[in-house]
Structure formats: structure tokens, C-alpha cells
Write a structure and sequence with these properties.
alpha/beta, 5-stranded parallel sheet
Amino acid sequence: MMRETSRQALLLGGQPLEGIAALSMPQYAWQFRRTSCLVEAEALLTSSPPPLGVIVLEGLQASAPRHLERVLNLVPDLLWVALFPPQSLQDERTVRFIARYCHACLPLPLHPDQANHVLESTLAMASLLGRADSHSGHTTPSRAGVSLVGSSPAIQTLMRDIEKIAAVDAPVLITGESGTGKELTARLIHTRSARQTGPFNAINCGALPAGLIQSELFGHEKGAFTGADRRKVGIIESTSGGTLFLDEIGDLPLELQVNLLRFLEDHRFLRLGAQRESEVDVRVLAATHVDLEGAVREGRFREDLYHRLNVLQARTPPLRERPEDIEQLANHFFQQFRREASRRVRGFSHDSLITMRQHAWPGNVRELINRVRRAMVMCEQRLITPDALGLERRNGLSREGVSLEQIRDGAEREAVIAALARNKQQVLHAARELGVSRATLYRLIEKHHLHRTLEERA
């Protein structure tokens, strides 16, 4: 039995109902907050959402369907029970509405025992869903609302690196593929550092026109160039006492790399059009998805700037190196975007979770977010399927006509990737875990084209 104090529900719409009055009697002890006004219902759900919602469909659905849908989607975790006149089921719109938005339904007039049983069952389900949601994934705790999701060895290594890096004030170079969370890593370093109360400012060096980067970074004086009708404080100066994050530093033009190098050496800079240098206290974090050492060899990036930025280094692992985190991440983003989803969608099917682990994720976490978010909007079933995610089993092999050899190869590849990830790409340790020789593991790496993973870790 549920505790009496938890037997509360919002009753939306309809005239006073005899069955509802009976449910308020001591043997049932339900407490209803009644309103027929959608605006009032919206306010009640926003301020103090009850554990359960009851909606009387008679005359309410046709009044303001869009507003009603918005009210029912306002609290994604709230389960609704529909009360309907039996003749209303002849209306196809009513049937679709109940199926889409309601967990259960009861015909009018209400029979108190039957209604009590359905309401109790729905309340129990709401409690179970709340507990399941709270344990749907592990999130690495943070001090200021910024967190990494996952418990894999790769993420734990990154978190240990972040803690060490945050304790000092040297420049940091964050490396990793696109979509792996380099800016999130920078924010974590900032929130764990002594500069956490100062500003955190980010600028994408590849997104600004070359002619504006110097003005954006260092600012300018009035009259410094045509159109400069007032003095502008640059992003470096506005970050005083905090952390400046320079994303895609590899795209910074060579002529501006000199200015940035001078600033890193003595934290002094010159605004465009100024006569004297200014000094500012800023920590610089930079990130890149390109090989800066290769860019140095090709003359596209200054070697002295590379060494100045690369005092400390953090690497964000690609999603394929942390397959054990995929389910946690998917559930995390499912909860984050619940309000955008159909009320019918409750989570992921077992098949979709397996398929997500098998996918190569070339777009990393950013791709995962996009696929989950799109599937939540477009899915017409209770559980998200691989088709809704736009994924195929076994890394794109069609589900029909897959040979036994292909299935074995897929499983073998996944086992090698997972073992390397758990052992920080150390071939000897991974080979011992898999029970094969180091030479055999190297042959498997060659067979499944996994050299890039090892080269990035080396």
C-alpha cells in the first residue's frame, strides 16, 4: 500500500464527479487538487507538481488542444490517468490522445474500487520510474554543475588528470577528436581551480574571420580602424582573474600566433591603436582536434607557441574507447531532453542499446546527442529502436544476410577495442587480459585497422 500522504493527484477538467468524491473518503484517502483552467493547471504543475495527474476528457480536449498538450508535457515524469465517457471512444482523436499522453484510462461513471486500484497502480509505476531515472547513469560529481558522464577507465583517467591540472596555474593543451567534450573538460578544470569564482570565457579561433580575431582577443581603441567608434575591451582583458579557453587553436593565423606567444610569456598585451601595453591575470587553456606537432613540421603552427601551450596536457577519449559508458550517456541525454519527447517514449530498447555499443561513433558524444535527441522526437513507440536512432547492427552491416564470419569479426573487433580501452592502450596488458600473445593481438589490431587508436594514445 502507498502511504496516505502520497495519495495526491491533480484533477484537471470536468464537473464534480461522484466517483471522485468517493475516492476522497477515509477508506481510499485520495486528495485531489481540482481545476478546469489550463492556465491554473500550468501554474500548479510548475510550482508543486503532484505525483499523479487525472484528466477528465469530457469537453476539455476540444477547447484548447495545443495548450492542453503543453500542460501534459510540462512535467515529463508525471503520469496521467484519463477519465472518459464510453461513447467518446468512437472519436479517433480521443483514442489517439489517450494512447499518446495517458498511462491509464477509466470509463465514466467511476466505480470507486476499480478507480482506486488503477490510481494506486499508476502511482506505484510513477515511483518506480522515478527510481529508475535516478539510477539511469553515473555522473562524475562536480562542484559547479559541470560534470562528465561515465565510469569507464578512460573517463576516470581523464578526471584524475583534471584534478592534477586544476591544482596548478600553468597553460594547458586539451587534445581530442571533435565531439569528445574538450570545452567541457576546460570548464571542469576551471571549476576545480583557484580561479573558479572568476569568469570563464571561450572563443573558437576557427569561427572568427581572420581580420577580427586580434580585435576580439586584445580589443581596440577608439579610431583604431574604420568603424571603431568606441573603445572595445577584448576577451582576454574581460577574463581577468579567470580562465580563457581558446578552442581550435590550430586554426589561429600565423601572424596572430606571434601576439599570443608574447602574451603567454609575460601576460602583457597591446590593444589595437593603443600606445602602451596592459597587463592581465588570465589562465589560458587551448584545445585542438588536429595534430599540432604535424602542423609545426609543416610550418602551419609556431613551434615555440606549441611548447608554450603544451605545458600540461589533457586528452579527451573518443567514444569508441569507452563503450561501457554509452548506455549511461544515452540515458543521461534522454533525461536531459525529456520535455521534447513524445509522452509515449519511455527509454531505449535492449536491441538499441546493443546497437549503440557496436556503432563506431565517428562524431563521438556530439553524434550520440544528436541521434538520441532526434529519435526521442520521431519515435512512435514506447522504446527507442535502432531504426529510430538511424543505426544498423554490426557497424552498418544489414540485418539480413549477415554471415557467421561477419558476426565473429564484429564481436572480435569489439573485444579488442574494449580490452585496449580498459588497459589504456597497453598492448601487453590487453593481450594478457584476452588470453592471447602480444603478436596475436598485433595481428588483430592490423586485421581490424585499429592502428589509429594506438597512435593517438602513444
